[in-house]
């Protein structure tokens, strides 16, 4: 739905124009003077301003100038009285899209409005495409020759041209959004917007407003109308990251949109229709969340028409050299270090680590090493895993291995048993608060979660 601001100091004229344009399906905001109009322009997403030329206080020309300084692409149509042609020409030279001489016919008004809005949409699309050109993705933008990744590429090729909803699963940092972008860019929606939102990054109340938008006065702080991510994604793809964190109340609203293709803004009563493809991602087991009552079963099956599971980096270790060289090249350009390189020893060292933080952790490690390395050569001492540093343990002087372990016990068995015991103890002491337990162990929260899954530590005081 396109939003138009009408500015005129004659109340009757505002009423007539508002009723006419609302009947044509436009969303209308009104202002009686230029000062109020300028504030509305700052607070709302508009598609067009229709303003009178002569008004007390800030006139149409001054309003036009202020709008063009702030949002040059927003079209403004001037309404002038008979005999003000010279002023109308001046308005056109100042950036007005067109002018209409009062009184004008309804057909003439609608034709100009539709032309202006279409022109504005083209400008906005060009801006969006220019801003996304560096992010446009194809399979060349996804690094990996591993067999599992080749299977994922095949799935993307098959599902991208369809309207099917896709659920992407995998640990944090594995590149789920990159796969979502690949699906979008290889679909018939590639020229439309790709809008993403992290469902875990916002509180419930803000997430609802972010997704569906809100009307002015819908809640404290809602000082203006705001369009949500669904409206912005119309004609394109909406990527819902961390969908498992979405509260049940919003899950019901999301299900309705998927089924009926309509929704209402927060605090609104008008139904808005959208054409959006939904791709969701999660690092949770949604089936288990359904069983625990944390996720709607009907929404789960709506989203999980096709599932793409992204493997953790430790299951595609053969891709680490390729990924490493890709990131070295990336930061070579970003940091202005054209001769930045990495030693073979460093790549071998990186290939020996488990990377619980996955590709994101590897990328962060290479970025840090690119900044700190000497002579623009990344050496093994520059690439350390992303774990919390802690003082060296003072065990050497008091630790007699022969008194604790039998000589025939294998090292992996000792390490696994010790890790499991220490994690259980840390979790109990931290009252099962993972962040606190990870801090006491001197590891990251993501590494703790991986170890808990590895050893089957699922519930308080219980192991399988």
How would you portray this structure in words?
This protein is of the alpha/beta class and 464 residues long. The protein has 4 domains: 3-132, Response regulator (Rossmann fold, 3-Layer(aba) Sandwich), CATH 3.40.50; 149-311, Rossmann fold, CATH 3.40.50; 314-382, Orthogonal Bundle (Helicase, Ruva Protein, domain 3), CATH 1.10.8; 401-455, Homeodomain-like (Arc Repressor Mutant, subunit A, Orthogonal Bundle). It is built from 19 helices and 14 strands. The longest helix is centred in the first third of the chain and has 27 residues, at 106-132. The protein has helices spanning 11-23, 34-43, 60-70, 85-93, 106-132, 147-159, 176-185, 204-212, 229-232, 248-260, 286-291, 297-303, 320-334, 344-350, 358-372, 401-404, 411-429, 434-441, 445-455; strands spanning 3-7, 27-31, 48-52, 76-80, 98-101, 166-169, 194-198, 237-241, 262-263, 272-273, 277-282, 306-309, 341-342, 377-378. The protein starts with a strand and ends in a 9-residue tail after the last helix. It is elongated and about 105 Å long. The strands form 4 sheets. A 5-stranded parallel β-sheet has the order 2-1-3-4-5, sandwiched between helices. Mean pLDDT is 85; it is low at 133-138 and 387-392. 45% of the residues lie in helices and 12% in strands.
């Amino acid at each position: 739905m396109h939003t138009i601001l009408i500015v005129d100091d004659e109340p009757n004229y505002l009423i007539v124009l508002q009723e006419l344009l609302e009947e044509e399906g436009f969303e209308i905001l009104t202002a009686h003077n230029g000062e109020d109009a300028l504030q509305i322009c700052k607070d709302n997403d508009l598609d067009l301003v229709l303003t009178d030329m002569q008004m007390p206080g800030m006139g149409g020309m001054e309003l036009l100038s202020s709008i063009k300084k702030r949002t040059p692409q927003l079209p403004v149509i001037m309404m002038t009285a008979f005999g003000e042609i010279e002023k109308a020409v001046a308005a056109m030279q100042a950036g007005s899209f067109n002018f209409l001489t009062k009184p004008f016919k309804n057909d003439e008004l609608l034709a100009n409005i539709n032309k202006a809005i279409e022109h504005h949409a083209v400008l906005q699309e060009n801006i969006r495409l220019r801003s996304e050109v560096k992010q446009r993705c194809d399979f060349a933008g996804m690094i990996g020759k591993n067999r599992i990744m080749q299977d994922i590429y095949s799935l993307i090729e098959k599902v991208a041209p369809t309207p099917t909803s896709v659920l992407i699963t995998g640990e944090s940092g594995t590149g789920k959004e990159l796969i979502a972008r690949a699906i979008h860019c290889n679909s018939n929606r590639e020229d439309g917007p790709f809008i993403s939102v992290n469902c875990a990054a916002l509180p419930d109340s803000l997430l609802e407003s972010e997704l569906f938008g809100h009307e002015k006065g819908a809640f404290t702080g809602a000082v203006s109308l705001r369009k949500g991510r669904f409206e912005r994604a119309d004609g394109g793809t909406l990527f819902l990251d961390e969908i498992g964190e979405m509260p049940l109340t919003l899950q019901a609203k999301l299900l309705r949109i998927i089924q009926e293709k309509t929704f209402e803004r927060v605090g609104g009563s008008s139904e808005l229709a959208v054409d959006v493809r939904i791709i969701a991602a999660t690092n949770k087991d949604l089936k288990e969340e359904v069983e625990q009552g944390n996720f709607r079963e009907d929404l789960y099956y709506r989203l999980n028409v096709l599932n793409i599971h992204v493997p953790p980096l430790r299951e595609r270790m053969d891709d680490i050299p390729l990924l490493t060289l890709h990131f070295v090249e990336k930061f070579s350009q970003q940091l202005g270090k054209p001769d930045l390189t990495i030693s073979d020893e460093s790549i071998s060292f990186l290939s020996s680590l488990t990377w619980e933080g996955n590709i994101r952790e590897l990328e962060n490690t290479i970025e840090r090493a690119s900044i700190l390395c000497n002579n623009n050569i990344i050496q093994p001492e520059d690439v350390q895993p992303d774990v919390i540093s802690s003082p060296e343990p003072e065990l050497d002087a008091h630790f007699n291995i022969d008194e604790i372990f039998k000589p025939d016990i294998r090292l992996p068995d000792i390490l696994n048993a010790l890790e499991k015991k220490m994690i259980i103890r840390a979790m109990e002491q931290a009252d099962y608060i993972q962040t606190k337990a990870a801090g006491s162990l001197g590891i990251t929260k993501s590494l703790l979660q991986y170890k808990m899954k590895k050893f089957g530590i699922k519930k308080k005081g219980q192991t399988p």
